[in-house]
Amino acid sequence: MITNQLHATVVSLDEVGALPDENYGDIHCDLTKCSNEDFKTVFWHLLTQESIDNFSSCTLITTSFHGSSSSKTTIAKMKQILCDTNDLCNNFENSNKWVIICPVSACFN
Fold first, then answer.
1. Residue 89: how many CB atoms within 10 A of its CB?
2. How many whole angstroms from its chain centre is CA 38?
3. Would the pTM count as exceeding 0.85?
4. From first to last of its 109 residues, what are the pLDDT tens digits of the chain?
5. Separation CA 100–CA 103 (nearest Å)
């Protein structure tokens, strides 16, 4: 699955110190390009929360249930989102919720 390839790439980039901090939000944004509306919605919410957390880290406001995302390293955030993505995809496939309604030229599935 693509998450395994992304995980290997993320780890390799981190090992050589070339993993940009903004990649976490980029992955959320890319995962919203999907034909499954429920899957897409989950990542829109996570992307929105990441934006709120980034704003909060610049102020004294704490909005996230888990605290500011800036408390985790980029590699930890990337590994978590890829693991969660894989789990969500597997759950959708096992529950027959992964139905492609229309063809999409570039998406997660």
1. 20
2. 14
3. no
4. 677 888 888 889 889 988 887 777 788 788 888 878 888 898 888 888 877 877 776 655 444 444 444 557 888 888 888 888 889 888 888 888 876 555 555 555 5
5. 7
